[in-house]
Amino acid sequence: MPFFNPLKVSIMALGGLALVPVAGLAQAPMPAAIVANDGPTYADLATLSDAAELVIRAQIRRQTTIKPDRAPGLAPGFARLYIQANTVALIAGRGTVGGTLAYLVDVPLDARGKVPKLKNREFLLFARTVPGRAGEVQLIAPGAHLAYSPDIETRLRPILTELYAAPGTVPPRITGISDALAVQGALTGESETQVFLATENRSPVSLTVLRRPGQRPQWGVSWGEIIDSAARPPAPETLRWYRLACSLPAQLPSSANLAREPEARRLAASDYAFVREALGPCERRITTG
Questions:
Q1: What is the pLDDT of residue 37?
Q2: Are residues 145 and 225 in the same domain?
Q3: Which of 164, 178, 189, 283 is close enough to 213 for a disulfide, judged by CB 3.0 to 4.6 Å?
Q4: b/e per residue 195-231 (b: at least 16 CB within 10 A)
């Protein structure tokens, strides 16, 4: 692949966001990369994308094996490589990258105990810049070096579109549960439970579970100050689903349950468990942290 001039790398577009490559970046060693054969899940891709400053498609042009005595923290059965690569595309980024880049990555040895040959292969890098190291990037996690495929890029782009949406429209990161309260209605089997979530930027998010006699329980999420009784659950494999399914604790913390009566406390805990079950598991196949 020919050398890329940083001034000639094409501008990439993601939704309404123009992604323009610019200067070189920096890096530091990563722990051993562990990637399952089945490939990344939605949660894997969302976690990597959310943490990355840069998402890069790169083609490796040279690899150099670092001697084990100069690779602290290297896991058995792995080799640490110094990679020099060409930038195929900056898929998304809060920074810029030049036409060539370098980084460190730990890769598993093959069945014969040999270092795999990566030259000319393409990878997706989830990376960050490190000031003062022009032309280098740092992978953000052990699993932040994924073999490129059109399928993975197709799955990745909707996630990046949501993450790079207009300020104020991106769902906040959930950090825990602030309060929960269940109130029983006048009719037998009628109740409403509200669970208020703590977020990284302190923006309000709440869950509501409504029970009506003879009807299935209904629940939804309000992403704002107004608690909407008509709110609906997030669609699976969306950023809002990810924020909840991969951040909420498995059980309602007893300290967050404001109800005094034992029956109301049990109802709040039961409704929270109902929501967690409806969201489904946060499945992961790669090491993202």
A1: 55
A2: no
A3: 189
A4: bbbbbeeeebbbbbbbbeeeeeeebbbbbeeeeeeeb
What span, in angstroms and rounded, lies between the C-alpha atoms of 198 and 177? 5
In angstroms, the CA 96 to CA 91 distance is: 10
| pLDDT number for residue 133 | 85
pLDDT tens, residue by residue, 146-202: 999 999 999 999 999 999 999 889 999 999 999 999 999 989 889 999 999 999 999
DSSP-assigned letters across all residues of 6-27:
TTTSPPEEETTEEE---S----
Q: Which domain holds residue 270?
A: 174-279
Contact 283, 36 (CB under 8 A): no
The alpha carbon dihedral of 195, 43, 17, 202 has a sign of positive
In whole angstroms, give the CA distance from residue 217 to residue 199. 26
CA 192 – CA 184 distance, rounded (Å): 6
- Residue 150 contacts by C-beta under 8 Å, 6 or more apart in sequence? none
Burial-class residue 136 by CB neighbours within 10 Å (0-12, 13-18, 19+). Answer: buried
The mean predicted confidence, pLDDT, of the chain is: 87
Number of domains in the chain: 2
Q: Which pTM was predicted?
A: 0.85
> What is the tens place of the pLDDT at every residue in 56-90?
999 999 999 999 999 999 999 999 999 999 999 99
The SS3 call for residue 184 is strand
Residue at which a domain ends, from 163, 185, 218: 163
**Token code pair at residue 67:** 């001697």
Task: Please check whether residue 196 is in contact with residue 227, taking contact to mean a CB–CB distance below 8 angstroms.
Answer: no
